[in-house]
Amino acid sequence: MKKNLYFASDFHLGSPNHAESRIREDRIVRWLTSIEASCSELFLMGDIFDFWFEYRTVVPKGYIRLLGKLAAMSDSGTKIYFFKGNHDMWVDDYFTKEMGIQIVSDELVIHRGGKSFYLHHGDGLGPGDANYRILRKIFRNPVCRWLFSVLPPKIGLGIATGWSGHSRIANTTTEEVFLGEDKEWLAVYSREVLEKQHYDYFIYGHRHLPMIVDLGSNSKYYNIGEWFGFNSYAVFDGEELRLEYFERPDKQA
C-alpha cells in the first residue's frame, strides 16, 4: 500500500565526473526501486543535478536511468515534487510535461497525517548565507536566464560543466560538522518562522549534513543530508518522521 512520504535532496548528479555520477545515479535508482511500493509522495528537495538548464528544445544529456525511474513512478500514481535548488534553479517545464512532476520554486507547506510540514531546499535562508542571497536574486532574474539562453547549448552547457567542477560538493576535502543548535542557520531560521506560525516539522537539504534538531514548541528541524557519502533521506509513515540511510550499515538514524 502506498502511504509513505519520502524526502531526499542533494544528489548533485553530474559531479564531480561522469563515472562517479553514474555510480551514484545507480545507487539512487536502487533506492527508488526499494521504496516504490510504499511511496505515495516523493519530495526531491533541490540540487538533484549539479547543473540543469532547459533550452527550448535541448536539455542536458544523461541521467536517463533516474529520469526513467521517476517517469515509471509517476505513471504508477506516485506524486513527485521537484524543488529548485541553488544548482538546478533553472528547471522549467520539462519534468512537468514529460513526467507530471510538480516544480516548487521556494517553500512548500503541506499537511499530512495531522502534521504540518515546512519544506524548502534551504538556500538563502537564515544568517550566514547573505552572499548567496545576492547571487540567488541575480541567477533567478529573468534577464539573467534569458542572457544564458541565447548562448548556443554547446557553449552554455560547457561553461556550466566547468562551473560545476568547482562546486562545494565536488571539492570538499573535510567532513561537514554540526555547528551547534544556536549556530546552525537553518535551525535559527526555523525558530524565527515558529514565532509567527507553528509547524511540526521543518525539512531542508542544502546543508549536506543529516541532522535532527529539537526546536522546542513540539517542532523539529530535519536536514536530509546528501548522497555523496551519507545516502540519507527522511520518511513519514503517517505517524512518525524518521531520518534513514540507504546502503550505509555504519549509519543509524
From TrEMBL:
Enzyme class: hydrolase
EC number of the protein: 3.6.1.54
Keyword annotations from UniProtKB, A to Z: Cell inner membrane, Cell membrane, Hydrolase, Manganese, Membrane, Metal-binding
Pfam family name, one: Metallophos
One GO CC term, this protein: membrane
Biological process annotations from GO: lipid A biosynthetic process
Annotated InterPro entries: Calcineurin-like_PHP, LpxH-like, Metallo-depent_PP-like
CDD domains, alphabetized: MPP_YbbF-LpxH
Domain Calcineurin-like phosphoesterase: 6-209
Gene Ontology MF, one: metal ion binding
KW Hydrolase (keyword) present: yes
Gene3D superfamilies, sorted: 3.60.21.10
Keyword hit for Zinc-finger: no
Domain of life: Bacteria
Name of this protein: UDP-2,3-diacylglucosamine hydrolase
Organism expressing this protein natively: Pedobacter cryoconitis
